[in-house]
Specification:
The protein has 308 residues and is α+β, with helices and mostly antiparallel strands. The chain has helices spanning 11-19, 44-50, 63-92, 187-194, 208-213, 216-223, 264-268, and strands spanning 25-26, 32-33, 120-123, 128-131, 139-143, 148-155, 158-164, 167-172, 176-177, 228-231, 236-240, 243-248, 251-260, 275-277, 280-284, 288-294, 301-307. An eight-stranded antiparallel β-sheet has the order 10-11-12-13-17-16-15-14. β6 (148-155) and β7 (158-164) form a beta hairpin. It is elongated and about 180 Å long.
Amino acid sequence: MSTPVSPELDKQTIIASIYSPVEHQINSSGEKKRYTAEIQVPYRSERAKYQRTIEPARPRKKSGAKRLGVCALIGLLVGGGYIGYPYVAALFEPSEQVDVNTPTAEPKPEPVAEMPEPTEVWLTEKNVSLLSEPNGTDVTYVGDIGDRYDVLEERDDHVLLDLGADVTAWAPLASTTPVWKSFTLSDQQVLNFLKSGVDQIYLERATVDEYLSFSETELYDVLGEPFGRDEDALNEYAFYTGIFFVIQDEAVHAIDWMNTPTTKEAFQQLGTPVYETEDAIVFESPKYSLRLFASTDGVSTRIRVTEK
C-alpha cells in the first residue's frame, strides 16, 4: 500500500520528483528492478488542486446594439410624452362646471348703423308747399318736381332747405328723395325737342341758350315789358302770351311754356325719364333739365326748361 502524501510537501518537491530521470537498477537475478519513487505521485485529484483553472473566454459584449436600443427607448419615451402630454394635462385641469343657478347674460343687440343725414334732396311731387315751420301752414314757396336743394336740418319728418337768396323753408320728407338718377339725354336732344314741342314765336327772337343767359333787363329789351308780373319769396315771374320767364337774382332762371299740345305719351318718346309720376315727367341732360307737368284735366301740359 502506498504512502500518503504529506500535506507539508511543497509544490516544487512534488514536481521535481515527477520529472526526475528514472534510474534503472538490476537485481542479482539479472532482472531490472522496478523503480519505486521515494515520494508517492499524488493522485490526479490532488494534482488538480495545483493546476490553474482555465475558464472559457467570455463573449465580447455588443455595446453598439445596446446603445441603439437605449436610444430607441429614449426616443419612444420622448415622442410618447410629446404626443400624450395634452391628454395627460387635460386630466389635471379643473373641469368647467356650469352653475345652473347663475343667470346667463342675454346677448346685447347689435347696434344699428345710423344712416347719414342727407346733404341734398330733390322734390318728387308737383307743387310741393314749402313751409316756414315744420307742420306749419304758412307757405314760403311752392316747389316743383325735380327742384334740387341743399339740406340744412332735419326735424319732425321735415327737412329745412336752402332755397337760395337767403331764403329757407321746410319740406316734408315724404315729398323728397336724396337719390337722383343721372342724365339720360344729351343737350342737343333737349334743344331738338324744343324746336318742335313748344310754341316757336318767342324762339324766333332768341335761342333757348340766349334766354337762359339774359339778365332781367336784357329780357325786357328783346321782348318788351311783360303784360303781367308776379313774385314770391324766391322768384319774380314775367308773363307773356303762352309763356312766362322765371327771374331769380335779376337773371332768367327758367322758361315755362303753358298750354302746350304735347301730351305725356309723346313726351315719353324722348327716352328714359330721370323721374316720373302720374302727372309729371323729368328728363335731364348734362346742362338742362326738361320737365312736363300735366294739367288736372289732362287736356294741356306745361313744359319747363332750366339750366341745372
